[in-house]
Amino acid sequence: MAEILVITDGAYGHRIEGIVNSFGKKNTFLKMHKIDKPLNMIVDEIEFPKEVLENINKADIMLLYTQHPDNTYYLCETAKQLNENIAIIVATWGGEGEKNELKSFDAVCPDEMCMLDEDEAGDLMNKYPKLREFLDEFGSPKVKVTIKNNSVESVEVLRTSICGSTIFMADLMKNMEFSEIEGFSKQCAMLIQRYPCVAGKIKLFRGDCKKQEAMNVHKNAIINGLNKL
What we know:
Blueprint: E1 2-8, H1 16-23, E2 27-34, H2 50-58, E3 61-65, H3 69-82, E4 87-90, H4 96-102, H5 118-121, H6 124-127, H7 129-137, E5 142-148, E6 151-159, H8 165-173, H9 181-189, H10 211-224, E7 226-228
Parallel strand pairs: 1-2, 1-3, 3-4, 5-7
Antiparallel strand pairs: 5-6
Helix pairs in contact: 9-10
């Protein structure tokens, strides 16, 4: 079992405990910590609470939703000092410069969490085996959609976005009518518009919105997972 630690300094990341506890079979939720944002944009050093450090030492996966760049940097640095086996996923990197800096700590920095897959993780899955266990259940969506008599008979979620949007979409797809693949997959993917998707909202200094791409990855998951009886 991979133990997942979530650290945030804002409004994001709070759904993850419920998603991991309800969907995870290879992953378990360790703890979520909300830490303070430094008052200044640039700081020389940050001291984290003792409980945060203790849980970094216990965790297999550290998932960061920290929007202050120094919180993110020093958490990655501290994690590597305390726990050489921890896999780091940064959901809130702010630009290519920061992303490249964080990669020096072996951090995985997906554009959005629903776009995280084996290609993004690359060789780090061999270096950090628990990362593979995480990706078995959470990341870019994978579903199995069974169509019978031109209607959705069942939807099995094989891998969900960590925010839970894949599960939400799958629940709403049941009994939907099927005509042709392109229109059907697009209609299903648009269901996540009803979900409080934060794609594109949690990155600092980025003007591009990724919500359309979040819908596209769900659309592709449906196309790849269709099973017509």
